[in-house]
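We were asked to recover a plausible sequence for a given structure. The inputs and outputs are reproduced exactly as logged, with field labels preserved.

PROBLEM: sequence recovery
POSITIONS: 315
GIVEN STRUCTURE:
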């Protein structure tokens, strides 16, 4: 039992030094600009019978340094995740691309072209810097949801179950082992997976939700709980885990399709996710403790104490 406790503390120490989590601390610098939408995957406004959802993302330079094609592809994918995480469907995107040379520019474009074709999104405007000092790509995206059917990050309630849903039918990217690529499927299959969040939103089955970001599953749960002013626990033994991927690597992984949600209707939510082709499990629960604890069998340790620290860098 003592060995398990030691392993748990080692996992926590390693994740606290993980760039995917450390880099989230800078988000707090912009809290005053995003106001009511701070901590959300996207912003939105009401228009007639719909909610118009807007988001934006930039791709980390280390991804582009490793694989320009993948950088272009995921510049679309990460925005698609943000739109679906809110219970909306993506419609169109704009971009800003900078490249050192034309060869790099075309490779980024190739990735973006394949992604928009696969996910059915249209790029309607862009800007190109063809002689930049480094390669970069930033994308903004717009989506549509039914009026009053938005999933926010800040609605988790004490007593809720925390569910993780992931597409495990893939493998780590050959050059970026913390990117789990499950996109080698027909577009209609991938869209059907993502549509699980739209169904959950329209049936009002979840209180909060987020797409699993580059902070990993636990970092994403931490963001959801802190945004909600709650605490809770995650049982590491209950996480959906692909074969042949070590646990610590998986805890740092950005999956090509993955969500965490907080719900008082776990059976119905699990059914929706599974019907959409995702591996879904109850991985923990929400409480009023203001701390996120990790469990491994009988052992437990604090991962984040939101009374003293903030994943967003607010304390």
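RECOVERED SEQUENCE:
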């Amino acid at each position: 039992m003592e060995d398990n406790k030691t392993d748990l503390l080692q996992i926590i120490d390693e994740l606290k030094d993980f760039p995917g989590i450390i880099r989230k601390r800078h988000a707090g610098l912009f809290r005053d600009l995003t106001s009511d939408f701070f901590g959300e995957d996207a912003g939105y406004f009401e228009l007639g019978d719909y909610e118009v959802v807007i988001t934006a993302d930039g791709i980390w330079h280390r991804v582009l340094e490793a694989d320009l094609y993948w950088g272009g592809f995921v510049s679309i994918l990460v925005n698609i995740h943000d739109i679906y995480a809110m219970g909306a469907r993506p419609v169109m995107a704009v971009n800003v691309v900078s490249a050192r040379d034309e060869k790099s520019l075309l490779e980024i474009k190739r990735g973006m072209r394949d992604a928009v074709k696969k996910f059915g999104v249209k790029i309607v405007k862009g800007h190109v810097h063809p002689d930049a000092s480094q390669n970069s790509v930033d994308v903004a995206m717009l989506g549509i949801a039914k009026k009053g059917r938005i999933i926010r990050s800040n609605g988790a309630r004490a007593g809720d179950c925390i569910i993780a849903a992931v597409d495990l039918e893939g493998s780590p990217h050959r050059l970026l082992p913390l990117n789990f690529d499950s996109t080698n499927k027909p577009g209609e299959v991938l869209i059907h997976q993502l549509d699980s969040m739209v169904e959950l939103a329209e049936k009002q089955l979840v209180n909060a939700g987020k797409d699993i970001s580059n902070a990993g599953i636990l970092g994403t749960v931490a963001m959801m709980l802190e945004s909600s002013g709650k605490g809770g626990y995650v049982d590491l033994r209950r996480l959906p885990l692909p074969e042949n991927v070590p646990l610590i690597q998986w805890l740092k992984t950005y999956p090509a399709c993955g969500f965490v949600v907080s719900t008082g209707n776990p059976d119905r939510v699990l059914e929706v996710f599974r019907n959409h082709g995702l591996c879904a499990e109850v991985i923990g629960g929400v409480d009023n403790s203001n701390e996120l604890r990790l469990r491994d069998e009988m052992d437990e340790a604090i991962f984040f104490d939101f009374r003293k620290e903030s994943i967003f860098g607010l304390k």
